[in-house]
Amino acid sequence: MFYIETKMKKEEKPKVYACVCTLSRHVLGEMEWNTRNFQRACKHYAIGAEAGHSGCLSDLQDGVKIGAFDRNEYARVLQSYKKSVEESRSDLRENSPLKQLMSMLG
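Request: output the structure for the sequence above.
Response:
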Protein backbone atom coordinates (compact mmCIF):
# COMPACT_ATOMS: atom_id res chain seq x y z
CA MET A 1 0.00 0.00 0.00
CA PHE A 2 2.89 2.37 0.72
CA TYR A 3 4.11 2.09 -2.88
CA ILE A 4 0.69 3.02 -4.20
CA GLU A 5 0.45 6.01 -1.87
CA THR A 6 3.80 7.46 -2.89
CA LYS A 7 3.28 7.06 -6.64
CA MET A 8 -0.24 8.48 -6.90
CA LYS A 9 -1.55 11.98 -7.06
CA LYS A 10 -3.44 13.21 -4.01
CA GLU A 11 -6.81 13.38 -5.76
CA GLU A 12 -6.55 9.70 -6.79
CA LYS A 13 -6.04 8.30 -3.29
CA PRO A 14 -9.69 8.13 -2.19
CA LYS A 15 -10.56 5.81 -5.08
CA VAL A 16 -7.80 3.40 -4.09
CA TYR A 17 -8.85 3.49 -0.45
CA ALA A 18 -12.49 2.97 -1.42
CA CYS A 19 -11.53 -0.06 -3.49
CA VAL A 20 -9.53 -1.57 -0.63
CA CYS A 21 -12.31 -0.74 1.83
CA THR A 22 -15.05 -2.41 -0.19
CA LEU A 23 -12.97 -5.49 -0.85
CA SER A 24 -12.04 -5.84 2.80
CA ARG A 25 -15.67 -5.35 3.86
CA HIS A 26 -16.68 -8.13 1.48
CA VAL A 27 -14.02 -10.44 2.90
CA LEU A 28 -15.03 -9.60 6.48
CA GLY A 29 -18.65 -10.24 5.56
CA GLU A 30 -17.75 -13.61 4.08
CA MET A 31 -15.85 -14.56 7.23
CA GLU A 32 -18.80 -13.62 9.43
CA TRP A 33 -21.27 -15.38 7.13
CA ASN A 34 -19.23 -18.59 7.22
CA THR A 35 -19.25 -18.52 11.05
CA ARG A 36 -23.05 -18.06 10.88
CA ASN A 37 -22.93 -14.49 12.19
CA PHE A 38 -25.44 -13.35 9.59
CA GLN A 39 -26.39 -9.97 11.06
CA ARG A 40 -22.79 -8.91 11.50
CA ALA A 41 -21.99 -10.12 7.98
CA CYS A 42 -24.85 -8.01 6.64
CA LYS A 43 -23.44 -4.93 8.36
CA HIS A 44 -20.13 -5.44 6.55
CA TYR A 45 -21.94 -6.07 3.27
CA ALA A 46 -24.01 -2.91 3.72
CA ILE A 47 -20.91 -0.76 4.22
CA GLY A 48 -19.24 -2.30 1.17
CA ALA A 49 -22.36 -1.95 -0.97
CA GLU A 50 -22.79 1.71 0.00
CA ALA A 51 -19.26 2.26 -1.31
CA GLY A 52 -20.15 0.62 -4.64
CA HIS A 53 -19.14 -3.06 -4.34
CA SER A 54 -21.58 -5.17 -6.37
CA GLY A 55 -20.60 -8.42 -4.64
CA CYS A 56 -21.54 -6.96 -1.28
CA LEU A 57 -24.89 -5.90 -2.68
CA SER A 58 -25.71 -9.35 -4.02
CA ASP A 59 -24.65 -11.01 -0.76
CA LEU A 60 -26.78 -8.52 1.14
CA GLN A 61 -29.77 -9.74 -0.89
CA ASP A 62 -29.18 -13.18 0.59
CA GLY A 63 -29.26 -11.61 4.03
CA VAL A 64 -32.62 -10.06 3.25
CA LYS A 65 -33.95 -13.41 2.02
CA ILE A 66 -33.12 -15.17 5.28
CA GLY A 67 -34.32 -12.26 7.43
CA ALA A 68 -30.95 -11.12 8.77
CA PHE A 69 -31.31 -7.69 7.15
CA ASP A 70 -34.30 -5.35 6.96
CA ARG A 71 -35.91 -4.69 3.56
CA ASN A 72 -36.27 -0.96 4.22
CA GLU A 73 -32.61 -0.72 5.17
CA TYR A 74 -31.75 -2.67 2.00
CA ALA A 75 -33.64 -0.08 -0.07
CA ARG A 76 -31.57 2.68 1.54
CA VAL A 77 -28.33 0.79 0.86
CA LEU A 78 -29.41 0.21 -2.74
CA GLN A 79 -29.90 3.95 -3.25
CA SER A 80 -26.44 4.62 -1.79
CA TYR A 81 -24.97 1.94 -4.05
CA LYS A 82 -26.51 3.50 -7.16
CA LYS A 83 -25.24 6.94 -6.15
CA SER A 84 -21.73 5.61 -5.53
CA VAL A 85 -21.62 3.80 -8.87
CA GLU A 86 -22.88 6.90 -10.69
CA GLU A 87 -20.22 9.06 -9.03
CA SER A 88 -17.47 6.68 -10.09
CA ARG A 89 -18.40 6.84 -13.77
CA SER A 90 -16.42 9.09 -16.04
CA ASP A 91 -16.46 9.96 -19.74
CA LEU A 92 -12.90 8.73 -20.18
CA ARG A 93 -13.76 5.33 -18.76
CA GLU A 94 -16.99 5.02 -20.74
CA ASN A 95 -15.29 5.93 -24.03
CA SER A 96 -12.03 4.01 -23.52
CA PRO A 97 -10.68 1.91 -26.40
CA LEU A 98 -10.77 -1.19 -24.21
CA LYS A 99 -14.46 -0.74 -23.47
CA GLN A 100 -15.19 -0.22 -27.18
CA LEU A 101 -13.25 -3.39 -28.01
CA MET A 102 -15.13 -5.37 -25.36
CA SER A 103 -18.48 -4.18 -26.71
CA MET A 104 -17.49 -5.30 -30.23
CA LEU A 105 -16.50 -8.74 -28.95
CA GLY A 106 -19.83 -9.22 -27.34
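Confidence is low (pLDDT under 50) at residues 1-8.
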